Amino acid sequence: MSQRDDLLAGARRCLVEKGYSRTTARDIVAASGTHLASIGYHFGSKDHLMNTAVIEATSDWGDAFESAVDASRAEDPPNRLRVLLHSLFQSLPAQRDLLVASVQAYAQAQFDDGVRDTLARGIGDGRRALAALLLDVEPEQVDPAAVAGLGSMAYNFVTGYVLQYLVDPEALPSVDQAIEGLRVLVPAAEE
């Protein structure tokens, strides 16, 4: 691994162990086995290094989620949501570190345009992919209204479960409970 890669790996470790705001440049150096000057040389500042690490972690989680969406696409349309939720819920323990870092990105986005722009693109892609999955069409066939309505509801549904898992993993519902909740919600929305 290069020194730049070592710094990124150290920063990601620090994100998980200490959090974004509590990580110092010295923490990153200790975790990466590099020296303080290497941060400035490769990234310009500790903040830029941390933002890069947060964006990478968010991208990695996006890749894991995309795999779950792809797996559910192979199912018949009525079973897709169940398969997606099953894949999502099963992946949460293994993805916990990425999820923690990704959640920190949302807070950091308020202070960094690069992080905000990257997250906005990822959210838009996620909303479109989820709407396409539920509508049984290709992502480029989903119109903007469906992305804004169905896509954002599905995205909020997924990210809500991620946040619930991070706060209280034992309280996460079963897939059957989540599906039943939707069955109750949908008729209520039609009234």
TrEMBL record:
Sorted UniProt keywords: DNA-binding, Repressor, Transcription, Transcription regulation
Domain of life (superkingdom): Bacteria
PROSITE patterns noted in UniProt: HTH_TETR_2
Keyword presence, Transport: no
GO molecular function annotation: DNA-binding transcription factor activity; transcription cis-regulatory region binding
Residues in coiled coil: none
Name listed for the protein in its UniProt record: AcrR family transcriptional regulator
Organism per entry: Nocardiopsis sinuspersici
